Amino acid sequence: MMKMEKGPLASRQFRWFYMGHTVSLFGSSMTPVALAFAVLQVHQGQHLLGNILAAQILPSILMLLIGGSIADRYHRDRLILLSNFVSGSAQTGIAIVVIIGANPYWLFPLAILNGVLEAFTSPAMRGIIPEIVDSQDIKQANAFLGTSRSAAKIVGPILSGIFAAILGGGWGIAIDAASFFIACACMIPVHIPSRSIVTKDQSLLQQMREGWGYFKCHRWLWSITCAFALMNPVQMGAWQVLGPIIAKYSFGSAGWGLTLSMRAVGLLIASLVMFRIQLRRPLLGTMLATSLAGIPMIILGQGFPLTILIFFTIVAGIGSSISGMTWDTSLQQAIPEKMLSRVCAFDDFGSFVTISMGEILAVPLAQKFSYPSVATVGGGVFIIAALLPLLVGRVRRMTPEDLPIHKLEGIQLLQNKRNQC
Questions:
Q1: Which residues cross the membrane (predicted)?
Q2: Nearest-5° Cα angle at 60, 264 to 62
């Protein structure tokens, strides 16, 4: 007798989603390196790079809360399909601007469009997993997604760095555009009925208030979000903006692409390990693992050889992968499905709202205090911020058995705590 397939891959919906998302990840992994070195080639490129990154992240942050409410209210699969199609069109425009050497300021409206789309896609992506796999398969589904993400980040930056050095960055972005269209096609067979309990007379504002009520009543949740509100601008400024600039004048674009790919090796190692293990203290593990990402910033700032930077970047990748999968799984198991996208949107909003500040201020601060100094101090600040939530007892002590309690209590827990918050 044929053995029945078990796990998330037993779900046809998840298989199609996973295939499309994997293709999109491979394309998107090429864009950061390609775009960075394409912008750095133009006049005043160092200042433009941070501003273009901020132009994408800022509208994403501003629209996140609306995007989370809409993802809970309507069909998440259709939102993802539409977003993939429009993102593919926007990335095509960016690729054309870069390839033909047009005025780089044309990148700003396209970056803004991508940011708006991300505000709708991210909450839908985080909320759709419990709808297409069984609850006991959520952790493994996130491990599958983490493995694909890691593999993409190994291959993508290396190819993108080579393309940037030989052909220019536009071709890597063009591949990303094609991957969005393929992901869009893969989402066509995915049909998931909306499980929203929102009544027709409940407005988006009421939905957001409900999500905010749940979010603010859980200290373990908002304390970690606050930590990421400090870590993310530091990482985006010291690593994403200053990293390529420091690399340009030291080990070059190919070396920077190799570094990012080796970080993905760490992500892949941890993703494979997470198939088999479950942390007894998931939130404690999340923050300890996150703190490792501050080490490469210090190494980069201190000018250590590329081999040492690559080693600690792999270590940071392991930590980031453990952190990301554990955090997503904790949220998906702990938060009622009917408000999962909204609560995740508040988590994303709080975590990302300060990112543009780091991107915009990175170069001015580096010009005043030196690029190595800002990268080094940024790494130290990142590590301290990652460890601060451990002062909260529930973050240190929460076990996997504690998480489903919140999911079962659902709206009743929210209503009972409203007067206490």
A1: 48-67, 79-100, 106-129, 150-171, 177-198, 219-242, 254-275, 306-327, 369-392
A2: 140
In a domain, 1, yes or no: no
Q: Left (φ > 0), alpha (ψ -120 to 50) or beta: where does 190 sit?
A: beta
Share of the chain above pLDDT 70, in %: 85
CA distances from 112 to 42, 105, 229, 240, 347 (A): 20, 12, 21, 18, 21
Nearest in space to 289 (alpha carbons), one of 258, 265, 248, 323:
323
Report whether pLDDT(362) > 90. Answer: no
- The answer to whether residue 82 scores a pLDDT higher than 70 is yes
- pLDDT of 193-217, one tens digit each? 655 444 455 677 777 788 888 888 8
- Give me the pLDDT at residue 98, please: 78
Does a structural domain hold residue 197?
no
d(CA 179, CA 164): 19
CATH of the domain at 89: 1.20.1250.20
Full residue range of the structural domain in which residue 318 is found: 9-191+203-420
The number of domains in the chain is: 1
Q: How far apart are CA 367 and CA 299, in angstroms?
A: 19
Q: Is the residue at 4 inside a domain?
A: no
Residue 161 forms part of a structural domain: yes
How many CA atoms lie less than 13 Å away from 80 in the CB half-sphere? 30
